Amino acid sequence: MSEKVIIIGGSAAGPKTAAKVRRLSEDADITIIEKGKFLSMASCGYPYFVGGVFDNRNMLLCTPTGVLRDPTFYMNAKAIKAETETEVVAINRAEKTVSCKRTNGEEFVLSYDKLMISTGSIPRMPFKEGLELDGVTTLQSISDAEYLRKIRDEKKIRKAVIIGGGLIGIETAEALRLAGIEITIVEMADQVLPYLDWELAAHVEKHLKTKGVNVFTGMKVEKLIGENGVITAVKLGNGTEIPCELAVVAIGVLPNRELAEKAGLEIGAAGGIKVNSFLQTSDPDIYAAGDCIEINHIITQKQTYSPMGDLANLQGRIAAENMINGPEVKFSGTIQTAICRIFEYSAGATGCNEKAARAAGYDVETVIITGPDKPGFMNGLLLISKMVVDRKTGRLIGFQCTGPGDVSKQVAQAALAIKGGLTINDLRDLDLPYAPPFSLAVDNFIACAHAMENKLLGRMKGISAREVRKMKCDNTSKPFILDVRGPDEFEAMRLGIGEVLIPLGALRKRINELPADKNHEIITFCKISLRGYEAALILVSAGYTNVKVLEGGIMAWPFDREK
Amino acid sequence: MSEKVIIIGGSAAGPKTAAKVRRLSEDADITIIEKGKFLSMASCGYPYFVGGVFDNRNMLLCTPTGVLRDPTFYMNAKAIKAETETEVVAINRAEKTVSCKRTNGEEFVLSYDKLMISTGSIPRMPFKEGLELDGVTTLQSISDAEYLRKIRDEKKIRKAVIIGGGLIGIETAEALRLAGIEITIVEMADQVLPYLDWELAAHVEKHLKTKGVNVFTGMKVEKLIGENGVITAVKLGNGTEIPCELAVVAIGVLPNRELAEKAGLEIGAAGGIKVNSFLQTSDPDIYAAGDCIEINHIITQKQTYSPMGDLANLQGRIAAENMINGPEVKFSGTIQTAICRIFEYSAGATGCNEKAARAAGYDVETVIITGPDKPGFMNGLLLISKMVVDRKTGRLIGFQCTGPGDVSKQVAQAALAIKGGLTINDLRDLDLPYAPPFSLAVDNFIACAHAMENKLLGRMKGISAREVRKMKCDNTSKPFILDVRGPDEFEAMRLGIGEVLIPLGALRKRINELPADKNHEIITFCKISLRGYEAALILVSAGYTNVKVLEGGIMAWPFDREK
């Protein structure tokens, strides 16, 4: 007897479920029902279509060999029915049917043995006034992408405001900025990219600014202002009006759970459809996957909303397995891995950042390091990394990285390390793929573990750029700030916060130039704070009791520097 | 009382040990003794200096900020004595001294509390005749690198033979080929890059050939032939003479263990100096690290010779820790991770390849997949990957990858997965950093785990390109070979081994065109064998009992194809 499988939603999790069900059962009767016109949209690619990385919109909708993934494709290649422009208006759990309505008004009912809800997400909209104006959009659909791409190509619009400095906001800012549009990002939090801690986000913000993008953090948008139905400005919470001809609302998404709620399915603590580890909803014949569900956070074991395209695909595959042969395959959850390109920078994170880890009750140690991804002679590019470790177990629970270097590999390594439950002892002698075109002999990730080990063992006391800056601004303490680089380096670039230069090579002889009081607070640094660390060890050995290393050195300093 | 630490060898492990000892003890009396002129040579960078990636040789000898790592640097920055052009001629364990001899003939004796032997490796030389000729070199030292760089710059030499198709051989071939020199690689084994299995090495060989490099595998070199003391040809075992003006011998290295042997220290089964997990030799006050030792293989638990620059550094750090505070920190061993750039390709591996795993007694399952590293619309580049899993535990024990795509990240992910002891169940829903500029929604590594899962569960039976080719050459069986791509794809490129084209979308209707005998062997494929797999499932469902998928599809076919 052939299993009837109905799948609501044709973007990522849905088609993946359908394809996998077919692979598991040549007999299953499979139907995808999609509200919109398109199927299997590569929605993470929208910003790159908008930005002109490619011109053929259909690349977002095609198989790798260029076949459009339309209902005909699904029927021919996979014997899957796909009903587009058709909405499921109700799930009737008692009868195990779904009530459907086509755009043309036609209504029909289909019965199911197993049902998948993969209805995705809806954009968050924090305010209401002005959202109806022309020139206001999100970047959530193919038609949004086409709208913004047209703006790019027409080159008429000169000023745009991106509301929201998260992943989509930043990607959209990049795409439109590359088209020559003047961009302002307005973000309510005190930083962009909330998956990073402030110290790393500050570098992203700095890079955005060097690319001509204005960034306002800690700033709420009050409303959108228009004339004759067309946007003219974004009004901020402090009264400022930013003139613009385009506003993109990108403050994140919410699970599209309405249909599930109406059907009486349980909603979880994080606001998504609640599923068990087999991805079953509170009705065991109804599965859910993708951006409409909440999932387990592998580290904190808390329910988490993590709407990511890669997870949607992986969930679809597991749900299909459970529908046909299960339920027995568990989805293990998320560690909230994320990455984003920002012009020449990338910024990624996995696990808990420091904020999240502390909020979850962990006693953490953190360290920031900087360094090139490859040797200087191979034109290595900068990486700025932050590691978060649970002091109790020594386990890696979070890692973030940004800079122009190969961030993606660093974050991928960390994601696997977290998955394997690795501790700092495990990371300190990793056998990684080393050759000069790819990494340093001691890869950045291992170097980060070494610095972390030094901190955990009490050999290094660190202080962040933000803390040093605050200290200087507040004028609360008067640390002796010691730059141990060479005179040439000092000449070329310096912090300009009253630091004293004593090159490391001269420090042992010139130690008498330091404060006589051995309890005076001393902060050491160099370019990346390796020499800074060596200097600190010399000072500690000389009896200084309060020596801290500026973590990551000058390269991790996100504030203005003297040149 | 200050600890006297003497370090023999100033390349990688030695200076790392010295620097770490200093960080652990400001009091220690540290001396590095180096036979050659230079210290802390980035020897893995030699091929890139030869190839002209950078012009200043001193970049191989400098700190990242451009300070030459000479004895003055070590003394000033680290308070470490460094004696260059000085050889340790004997270790006198009873007195705890070393007898030293300078190049100028001067002799002296130093006493130690702790000794580090980091004497590195010596080149393997498989034959003797002709090695003395002008135009014969290795690429093992700065002077070798300078010699080859001069050849590159002078543009006089037109033909060179590289003896050995391993990592250094390939890197040297690339460097000299980029200088316009006609290159022939001669390799005794039946493939290049022994850390790969044949199927992947064949792709590297193919790429070398497209770059104009001649490759002879399965071929021994008998001797070098010269006239007037200058090389004129390399004579192969089969009698062929390859004319050349330059021969680079790069058939690998051996541990430089002579000094240790003379001192009565134990030598291990793999030919290197034997050390325990604290990196102590058979004399607990004498440590050894780097290319002169053998180490534990984490997977097979066998003693292994793994002369890699990254491991040398990590070992140096651990040995220093044990000298000063231990012994208590263990070096965990190697998984023999390696990577190499070959023109536009990279090729890397970690863990055991299939050969090694089977030799070590594992019952393994393997799978080969192909696919782009990023979406097509982001100009994704090909990756060809092979995974090796221990059937008993389901654990990943090996992974290899080659192609123009981001190989380094794939191998790094696998290295971490192996370190974490992850199984296929752990890998199938990894939360990796996904965004279109960095990877596919289902990353290649996860896709490989999915294919492996399908094989382990018996859902997919695979066959390698090599087996199919052998089948056709031997004419032992007459499988029905089914290409399920589209007609356009078939038109553009095909295997040309008598395959029949039935596009996947038509297969269900045209199944009657297949052999009537349901036990007939059928081999399915497409571009990357995802559609090939779906086709196989359709056929199995239709009652065919002997259906195999050509793993990796056309993209994994390393032999000639019809265009």
Number of strands of chain A: 30
From the 3D structure, determine the CATH topology of the largest domain in chain A: FAD/NAD(P)-binding domain
Number of domains of chain A: 4
Instruction: Give the rounded overall mean pLDDT of chain A.
Output: 96
Query: Which oligomeric state applies?
Result: homodimer
Give the termini separation of chain A: 76 Å
What is the CATH homology-level superfamily of the largest domain in chain A? Answer: FAD/NAD(P)-binding domain
Share in β-strands of chain A: 15-25%
Protein chain pair with the most extensive contact, residues per chain = A-B, 104 and 104 residues
CATH architectural category of the largest domain in chain A: 3-Layer(bba) Sandwich
Number of helices of chain A: 16
Radius of gyration of chain A: 27 Å
Q: Ranges of chain A with pLDDT <50 over ≥5 residues? A: none
Helix % of chain A is 25-40%
The rough form of chain A would be described as globular
Give the strand line-up of the largest sheet of chain A: 3-2-1-7-18
Task: Note the main sheet of chain A.
Answer: 5 strands, parallel
